[in-house]
Every structure is written in structure tokens, then in C-alpha cells.
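::Amino acid chain::
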Amino acid sequence: MSQKAEPMYRGYPLSELVKLNMDSLIELLPTRRRRTLKRGLPPRQKKLLMKLRAARKSIKKGKEVVVRTHCRDMVVLPEMVDLTIAVHNGNKFNRVKIIPQMIGHVLGEFSSPMARVKHGNPGIGATKSSAYVPLK
């Protein structure tokens, strides 16, 4: 029987990553994220982190919680794994389930602000060629 392997990040299992203090965790992240976190979290990111910690407690009690945020530049930390975050894309909130592979990325990467363009048929009089479209 094969056991399901625990997710790893840079050689550390997720259970150890959650226990690391912020300084030790920062050293594992890529350069851009490391620089961002060394400068400290702005108040809006601290507020989001507090909401996520409260959501984690609610989930342990059996509630299903989705935290909504406009904070697209928040770095995904190990304590966010398995939470659902609704990230604003400029128009609506897209639900994002945080998985271990997302650690070190920012939330905005998972909620694209641009929708795919879907063009319909041209209307009557839209172009010269549409003048010859037979009407039904």
C-alpha cells in the first residue's frame, strides 16, 4: 500500500512550514516575495491575515467560510493552505481554493482581471458585407 505523500515546499513538508516563524519562512521564498515580506505587511494585509486565522477557527468548528478580499498582492503563506479566498478581479470575486503548490505566489495570479473576448455575429448595417446577409 502506498501512502499519500505530504506536500513539500523547498524540501520541507507542509506540517513543518506551518510551524516555522516568519523569518525562517521568508528565507525559503523566491527573491521578490522575500523582499516584499521583509519590508513588513501593510495594514490591509495584516487585516486579511487576521480574517484568515479567524476563518481557520470557524472551519474547525464545522462552518464553511469564504474570506473576500481586494488584496491581490498578498503572498500565499503556508497557514492559508486549504482555505477558500474570494479574490476581487475588478468586477467580481473569484473563489480560489488555496493548495500547497500556491505557496510563494500572490493571490492576484489566481484571479485574472481580463475575461476572454467572445464576439457575436455583426448586426444589420454593422459592415458593408453584412448588408448582403439574407434575413430570415
About this structure: The helical segments are 14-19, 22-26, 31-38, 43-60. The chain has one domain: 8-112. The mean pLDDT is 88.
